[in-house]
Amino acid sequence: MKRPAGTLRPFVDEVTIQVRAGRGGDGCVSFRREKFVPKGGPNGGDGGNGGSVVIEARTGVDTLLELAGRHHWWAENGRPGTGSDCHGRNGRDLTVTVPTGTLIFDDGSGRLLKDLVHEGQRVYVARGGRGGHGNAYYVSSTHQAPRESQPGLAGRERMLRLELKLIADIGLVGLPNAGKSTMLARMTRARPKIADYPFTTTEPQLGIADLPGYRRLVLADIPGLIEGAHRGVGLGDAFLKHIERTRTIVHLVDLCPPEGSPSPVEAYRMIRRELGEYSPVLAQRREIVVGNKLDLTDARDALAALESELGQSVLGVSGVSGQGLRELTEAMWTAVQETRDSEKETKPERIDFDFPPSSTREIHEPPGAAGDAEPESRDNGSGA
Fold this sequence. Notes:
5-stranded mixed beta sheet, alpha/beta, Spo0b-associated Gtp-binding Protein, Chain: A, 7 helices, 14 strands, disordered C terminus, 6-stranded mixed beta sheet
């Protein structure tokens, strides 16, 4: 059914699905029976291999919504072999598309199987069963009329938990109504909901900022954090994970908060405390402190006071008038580029999954693909 114009797609960032690879086709018992051909002999063909289940990361897919309404993903079974040495058709692989930034966990053990961070990255999560041999396979000089065949082997079945963590260069954080959505709308073509009440943003929003010189930055607006967000208060605990992948944090502080709200210094320290409680690594992420709503009265005095209290420079901007946004975008670009350069200098750690020695490795990538798992042959002989 076509979605009505103007409606929003719900943001889904965690689902549990069942994947099942196809069963291999059975081998065939057949003998050639043709006029004027005595003792035609066995000609039963092998069954086809079952299809595998593949998860592929693609850009343009921004949520796990499509998987939330379909919990069972089953690949096609292989067809049985037939007479005249006809091999059964292999089952088609089933490809499940997910957004880049999706983590794949085994739901039973909780083990991370794969982190899909690149466009086009593919991983086989369930191997199809091998097709069984027909009786033609068993012919030998001492066994010329075999009547046995091999059944197809079952494909692998497992429960997976998929978790999405957005990939962005910049993560916008701050208290509710700090002006993050206005900033995102002003700097990008994103159209988040903007209103004068707290928790206007109820799900992460992405936008692309175009800078002069054909430069681009991906910005993520994270729903407002409040005190106790790391313990589940408000919306923060559900969306803090989406800034774990960001290279730089832009911390927006309301220079002129409403009466009864925390002061700019208190608001800044509250958010920093929540980030540290949630993840010490996240708390060490590079940060740009921005004083927003510079267009309001007394905002410049509040900006100077904030700089004095924090002992560091604070960029003053206005999401409404656009004042200071050019300087902010250049500062963000410089910070992101320096982070990218440091990432290139750091040799990435290689991760090898600890697969049980009694079973064949299930998580693998096709030959020539880049990833943590070693490329491997699909001939496993067990179908598991």
